[in-house]
Amino acid sequence: ADSTDSAVLTRAEEILHKVYGHRAFRGNQAEIISHVSAGGDALVLMPTGGGKSICYQIPAMLRDGVGIVVSPLIALMQDQVAALRQIGVAAAFLNSSLQIEEQREVEQQLRKGALQLLYVAPERLTTPRFMDLLATLRPALFAIDEAHCVSQWGHDFRPEYIQLSILHERFPDVPRIALTATADQDTQREIIQRLKLEEAEVYRASFDRPNIRYRLVEKIDAKRQLLNFIQQDHQGESGIVYCQSRNKTEKIAAWLRTHGVTALPYHAGMTQDERRENQHRFITDDGVVVVATVAFGMGIDKPDVRFVAHLDLPSSIEAYYQETGRAGRDGAPADAWLAFGRGDVMMLRKRIAESNAPEARKVIEQRKLDAMLRFCETPECRRMALLGYFGEESQPCGNCDLCLEPQATWDATVAAQKLLSAVLRTGQRFGITHLIDVLRGNVTEKVVHYGHDQLPTFGVGKDLSLHDWRALSSQLISLGFLSVAGDGYNVLAMTEAARPVLKGEQQVMLRKLAERGKGRKRQLGA
Ligand code: ADP
Ligand code: ZN
């Protein structure tokens, strides 16, 4: 097998040089190509820009017959096919954008064996008619691009992808290669199960982006903090600022402009012309900052984005990773900066609880948010936490806020005990606002109504501010000492894990989230 392997690799390298003009394979491309060329199934997990395309294009050229590529987006197909034709590869696509005549022509080429690669929309591929046509052709391989679209719980779910399991039943001898840049372990399992890829070799490229420096600051006055960050570290450079709402993108962009930053808004509520114009200026001009909702970024390939800033908490680590990944594509240093407001968490929790989604979906969304929170509250290296989420082990990176800045910690044991006992003594039926009133000795109507001013914990927490207590509660939630229940009412309850803390058998050391830049200094326990 070794000699055929190396023969295949030699031919693969020839194609890499002559057709693509690249010098050498990257990462595990060579391995993937020889495995698939030899007829094996593969699941490829590789970040955007990692070089997934040649992993199926070269095997398709090396094997007899046409390589069939399933792709979910018409625009993506057209781009790929245009790029391939430009370098002399016989490629075509079949989707709903074609006229009947054009479709016939593609099918004719297909029958003649004149195509090396055919991009097809999933719903078209799985029609009985097309399956029968394929059966007469012996395809070289099936490539399933954006394979995470098969995941019901992902944000890009495409019902048509579920049908793709029939490829294996109809064509058991044709190798299949599924590719995605979404790498969390739930999605990976779902792809394997739904596409029947149990026998496939799994290739995982590193998701690390070493030139991106991850930094979190505690959100106090977000737009001021953002302005300081831009003025201190990124004056005149290109960047993207993500916000949760359309309205906010407009306001922040306008505000930044009054402070000398060339900032433009971008969101799905703007007209297509406005969006195109702002996107164009971002790509072609120097030093433009786009203030956008998550609608911005897909398919934008600007190499010198020097920072991505988040003014609001992203709803999942996948989203955070995708969005921050738009910084520093050129490999030069770039910043991923997030203003972390614990108030955002309650808002997001509430939004999930109150949405109309099915219960199972809400549970998943909540789990994703919890993972994002653990990332924000992690005491170790940010990169380790991020990569760890994708199942990748690593060492402290030396290029994130937690690695670079000595972390101030404080002994929060007594404060934690006070909060836990307030939770217990009020019967685990109240949210943090009321609990803080009890701890800080505020005589509110609700406190009086429930007789909580008579509790021994009433007023024992005057030494900490409202803000400190909120921070503490969300850290205790992230650490699993408190749980949140009650359909959006954010009722706090104590967990089993908190018992040793309450009994004084376990110390709680917490990280102070430092605020970077100017503005009021407010630190926990200080
Ligand atoms: P993905 O689909 O994973 O986002 P692409 O396949 O589009 O990534 O590749 C990203 C870029 O990297 C493309 O410009 C491609 O030409 C380039 N590329 C891929 N493999 C190599 C390689 N071995 N050497 C140099 N450039 C490469
Ligand atoms: Zn680090």
UniProtKB/TrEMBL annotation:
EC numbers for this chain: 5.6.2.4
InterPro entries, sorted: DEAD/DEAH_box_helicase_dom, DNA_helicase_ATP-dep_RecQ, DNA_helicase_ATP-dep_RecQ_bac, Helicase_ATP-bd, Helicase_C-like, HRDC-like_sf, HRDC_dom, HRDC_dom_sf
GO terms of molecular function: DNA helicase activity; hydrolase activity
Required co-factors: Mg(2+); Zn(2+)
Domain annotation Helicase C-terminal: ranges: 222-372
Keyword field: ATP-binding, DNA damage, DNA recombination, DNA repair, DNA-binding, Helicase, Hydrolase, Isomerase, Metal-binding, Nucleotide-binding, Zinc
Family: Belongs to the helicase family. RecQ subfamily.
Protein name: DNA helicase RecQ
Protein species of origin: Dongia sedimenti
Organism placement in taxonomy: Bacteria, Pseudomonadati, Pseudomonadota, Alphaproteobacteria, Rhodospirillales
Encoding gene (name): recQ
